[in-house]
């Protein structure tokens, strides 16, 4: 009797796509290390990353203290923004939902400017801590305000609360910054998001938050699949809808706050990447969320590489993502808004 082994489960479409995305992401990481004002070979970049080797050249310093932190920032911020956007769209069932709806950008800007007004100047760690705290606090306030009866998420109230809080904080931030030209210059520089992170030590503090939030998000795949069928049907399947929504919003807040504190506000990434992942993997969150986790940092690193490669100077990644994201947003409004996110 012959036994016919089926490889469908192993060599399915998601398997091929995940493999391809991993290869693309690895290639973009290598390109991010070697691309810049000064071209450095792959072999020299690799040898510069060796922990047992002491830097004795300018190229080694560039790799270790400029391009490596920059690449890690793209990976961490990309994963955080992508998952936050995917969660936001899934929970609100709104194809145009973005992590910025929670007011994280405005909260981070306000606490940073407030700290500058009080202390006059901020160290890197003080600026990062204030931005993280402000973004997280703003997101929690919006989440609590946007919750309906029984703690369930109300998308309309959530959006209105986010827009209202953002308007208030942006007004206060502008008022404080206009009183001091130095604060205004700092705010203008920070609000144009960039991956130009110069300290590796920040990742030791940030990574546990992002890894924990990403892990919990991936574990919610079954609940999100049930929730996409409607709240009533999800309850019949044993899903605690209110708890899932509250946990989801808190995870969005944590992911968005981490990314915003690290790189500043980067527009469109949390909106675009989930749609690209959904187009590749479908709406099943078991594949859609891991796909977003790989696709978003790839898009962010690609945008950063383009910004470093064109023109005599460097174009910030937030500007490149805006150029990429605006046409995609127009396409979403034109072709997808009437059909939801399915």
UniProtKB/TrEMBL annotation:
Top-level taxon of origin: Bacteria
Record-linked CDD domains: TM_ABC_iron-siderophores_like
Stored Gene3D superfamilies: ABC transporter involved in vitamin B12 uptake, BtuC
Name of the protein described by the UniProt record: Iron chelate uptake ABC transporter family permease subunit
Topological relation to the membrane, as annotated: Multi-pass membrane protein
Membrane spanning stretches: 71-88, 100-122, 128-146, 158-179, 199-220, 241-267, 287-307, 319-337
Keyword tags: Cell membrane, Membrane, Transmembrane, Transmembrane helix, Transport
Family: Belongs to the binding-protein-dependent transport system permease family. FecCD subfamily.
Subcellular location: Cell membrane
């Amino acid at each position: 009797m012959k036994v016919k082994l089926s490889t469908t489960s192993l060599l399915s479409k998601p398997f091929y796509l995940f493999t391809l995305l991993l290869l693309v992401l690895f290639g973009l990481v290598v390109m991010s290390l070697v691309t810049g004002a000064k071209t450095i070979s792959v072999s020299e970049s690799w040898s510069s990353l060796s922990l047992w080797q002491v830097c004795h050249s300018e190229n080694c310093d560039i790799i270790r203290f400029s391009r490596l932190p920059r690449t890690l920032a793209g990976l961490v911020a990309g994963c955080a923004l992508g998952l936050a956007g995917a969660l936001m769209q899934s929970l609100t069932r709104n194809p145009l939902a973005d992590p910025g709806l929670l007011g994280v950008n405005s909260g981070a800007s306000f606490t940073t400017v407030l700290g500058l007004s009080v202390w006059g100047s901020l160290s890197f760690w003080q600026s990062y801590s204030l931005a993280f705290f402000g973004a997280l606090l703003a997101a929690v306030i919006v989440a609590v305000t946007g919750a309906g009866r029984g703690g369930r998420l109300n998308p309309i109230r959530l959006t209105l609360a986010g827009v209202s809080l953002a308007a208030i904080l942006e007004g206060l931030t502008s008022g404080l910054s206009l009183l001091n030209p130095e604060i205004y210059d700092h705010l203008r520089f920070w609000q144009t998001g960039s991956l130009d992170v110069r300290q590796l030590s920040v990742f030791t503090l940030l990574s546990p938050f992002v890894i924990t939030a990403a892990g919990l998000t991936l574990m919610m795949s079954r609940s999100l699949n049930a929730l996409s069928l409607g709240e009533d049907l999800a309850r019949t399947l044993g899903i605690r809808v209110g708890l899932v929504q509250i946990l989801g919003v808190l995870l969005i807040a944590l992911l968005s706050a981490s990314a915003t504190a690290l790189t500043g506000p980067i527009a469109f990434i949390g909106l675009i990447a989930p749609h690209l992942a959904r187009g590749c993997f479908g709406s099943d969150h078991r594949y859609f969320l891991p796909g977003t986790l790989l696709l978003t940092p790839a898009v962010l690193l690609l945008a950063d590489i383009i910004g470093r490669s064109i023109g005599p100077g460097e174009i910030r990644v937030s500007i490149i993502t805006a150029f990429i994201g605006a046409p995609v947003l127009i396409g979403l409004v034109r072709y997808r808004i009437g059909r939801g996110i399915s």
